[in-house]
User: Fold this.
Amino acid sequence: MFYGKARLIRQRKLADGIFEMILDLPEIAQTAVPGQFVDLYTEDPSLLLPRPISICDTDPEKGTVRLIYAVVGKGTDHFSRLADGSMIRVSGPLGNGYPLEEADSPFVTEIYVVGGGLGVPPMLFLAKELYKRYPDKPIRIFNGFRSTPWIEADFEPYGEVFSASDDGASGFMGNVIDAMEYRQVMAKDMDHEGVLYSCGPVPMLKALQNWQTRYEMHSFFSLEARMGCGYGACAGCPVRLRVPGADGDGERLASVCKDGPVFNGEEVIFA
Amino acid sequence: MKPELKVDFAGVPLKNPLVTASGTYNPEASGQFYDPSILGAVTLKGVSAEAWQGNPTPRIAETYGGMLNSVGLQNPGAAEYLAHEIPYMEQFDTKVIVNLAGHSIEEYERVTEMLCGADRIDMFELNISCPNVKEGGMTFGTDARMAEQVVKAVKRITDKPLIVKLSPNVTDITEIARAAVAGGADALSLINTLLGMRIDIRRRQPILARSVGGFSGPAVKPVAVRMVWQVSHAVDVPVLGMGGVSTGEDVVEMIMAGATAVALGTVCLTDPQAPVRILGELEETLNRLGIRDVNEIRGCV
Assistant:
């Protein structure tokens, strides 16, 4: 676990309210796995709690970590104004990460990587590592945006990329589920198993949860939450999980920050 | 020269006065950032006889110099603590305080019965001051007669030293302090969080799902120092001071106000390695002020 100050090598604006940071963070670049996140801290007394940001990519050789985030409040606004060379207090890598090994089985012949909005960036790190591990398995990447994509070409080396946008500005007009349905219909190749990894807004994950029940597919969702400490000490970010039982399903609580943010998609109970 | 940091807290020797506050320390999670063996003691999060689900989300809101929480004592129950959390602490050389939660005297008794046989537990902290549960919690901590009754009931069950955690949400905290001591409290801890609220002005709704929550963090420190000072002069049991402590100097301030030990709470959430930093700062501050033994300055104000 790294905890300390890191240098902001470069920050740039990708689109309105969307920023990319490259941080000099060798400890995290060399140990993080896809689906994990970092906490960024301000030194402003009105913004004491850390902001969790998913890891978009790492470069273990250069020792850098790439983050893409949206300005959603005062904390992220503060980060978006930091100049290159600034020092930022960071902890990480935090959380569990995606179980890549779920795609090990020879029966898994297709891997789905589905991101929506700010859930797209962490899917890049995931797609890259999946491709390294399973170069022979087709990786189908579905990215959903509101309008023009602000990250797209980076995914191309790792699989077949389908982009969807609500307004049709680029790629398929509609949401990622529509794009996936379209792709399923076109391919008619549902006689095998797939694994689906996803990160995105709750309505998208809910829709995916419904969608996947119609196919032979294991799913893993990365959840977003309003966190307190970000590392499992404060019980601020619970998620309800389904526990299958002989006489009906039970429930248990887990921490999004520490036990997650990635959970078995079938188990997540959305409020 | 290293200043002497050892203190005796209600008969329990602590290697230094630093303790974690309930709800801000999790053995595995916090262990990623520091070794709890550096601390005088750790407090395990409030536990009830049966598992509690806690409150709906959002449970956390940020505010200038602090935060609000309405976690509501979510915990897996005493049996789970006996199976996991308590044995996990065997590997660490620090005292273990367990915070006890209940909705009624019977529930406080029940959780005490379940845990009092665990040797690894050095002390109990009776939580009669949580602002985030409907019954029990703060209702015991804001009524002197009920406070005395619940303390008496728990003391009948266990020989372990009992700390009673007090709420600041009262007119006169010394009245509740005296009642807890009359009931048999071996020590008092204060302050629990202040009842607070924040509103999302765009949605015209409270930020917290439960509307109100406990306010903690550096902004509450002057209130905490004042109450530690009042209580430590009103009773003759030792005080575990807490409330916004974020630096070594804050620890010295609490001890001068009358605290024997000092707990770190919100700072552990906003700076996960805070215990390491604050321990270093405490030694440095004592040296700078020419204080050779932390016991010299207790209650000097």
